[in-house]
Design brief:
Layout lengths: L1 E10 L2 E11 L4 E5 L6 H8 L7 E6 L2 E2 L5 H6 L2 E4 L11 H8 L6 H14 L1 H5 L10 H13 L5 E5 L7 H16 L3 E6 L2 H7 L2 E6 L2 E7 H6 L1 H7 L4
Parallel strand pairs: 3-8, 3-9, 6-7, 7-8
Antiparallel strand pairs: 1-2, 1-4, 4-5, 9-10
Helix pairs in contact: 3-6
Bound molecules: adenosine-5'-triphosphate.
Length: 235
């Protein structure tokens, strides 16, 4: 299980995370929702060591991750799909996937995982030789997820996978998230699309200006009046 306890982050004078705690049990999907600037990306970036917290700890199966370099954290199976589909635009789809597996040497396993990625995303297989920069936004998001899967993650953390995508593509991406989870990968999802994120989640957390203000099973949060008025656009 991934456990975040008392996590605080300061950016200069900005107290972006103010002692948050959350748990992601093995095999579950947990969603963290919140408005722009609430601290969602900061949370994920702290978990993988890209941001140094000023207080608090992150642990994974009992081992403290806080203070470890990012590559060591990724090696333990904790992987982040960053916001904005950061694929390498001048490399092909195939080359981007190969880079995802750069720290691995098990050729057979890598080939099997590539096949699995193409199983999730047949569109990527059709475009294996195409430069990633010429893919559509949705295809680039598929590639970003596919590349993360090539690290063979135990927990996949996704930063706004639905951002800027058409509704049908969003639906497809969420379908894949569920399928990835059913294959045994734990998922921590952050989203502004609160409805889709809570529908898919076993458990949800609501982050507001650096604090967790509400948590509960995804379905309960969907029915919560505060969530409905602030995040689902309902009266
Ligand atoms: P969004 O949905 O808009 O991506 P978010 O919930 O992911 O928002 P964060 O990106 O974590 O929010 O930002 C939290 C706060 O920290 C914001 O006020 C942001 O301006 C600030 N912040 C984030 N990164 C930095 C940085 N590198 N330097 C200074 N301030 C930062």
């Amino acid at each position: 299980m991934l456990k975040v306890e008392g996590l605080s982050v300061h950016y200069g004078g900005i107290h972006a995370l103010q002692g948050i705690g959350l748990e992601v049990p093995d095999g579950s999907i947990v969603s963290l929702i919140g408005a722009n600037g609430a601290g969602k990306s900061t949370t994920l970036r702290s978990v993988v060591g890209l941001v140094k917290p000023t207080a608090g700890t992150v642990s994974w199966n009992g081992e403290t991750l806080t203070g470890l370099p990012t590559r060591e954290i990724v090696k333990r199976g904790v992987c982040l799909v960053p916001e904005g589909r950061r694929v390498f635009p001048n490399l092909t789809v195939d080359e981007n996937l190969t880079l995802g597996a750069y720290s691995r040497s098990d050729k057979a396993g890598i080939a099997a995982d590539r096949k699995k990625v193409f199983g999730f995303f047949p569109r990527l297989e059709e475009r294996a030789k195409q430069k990633a920069g010429t893919l559509s936004g949705g295809e680039q998001q598929m590639l970003a997820v596919g590349r993360a899967l090539m690290t063979r993650p135990k927990i996949l953390m996704m930063d706004e996978p639905s951002l800027g995508l058409a509704p049908l593509v969003v639906k497809m991406i969420f379908g894949i998230v569920r399928a990835i989870n059913q294959e045994g990968v734990t998922v921590l999802l952050i989203e502004q699309n609160a409805k889709a994120a809570l529908e898919i989640a076993d458990h949800g957390y609501v982050l507001e200006t650096g604090r967790i203000i509400l948590q509960g099973p995804g379905k309960e949060l969907l029915a919560d009046d505060r969530v409905r008025s602030a995040y689902l656009g309902e009266a």
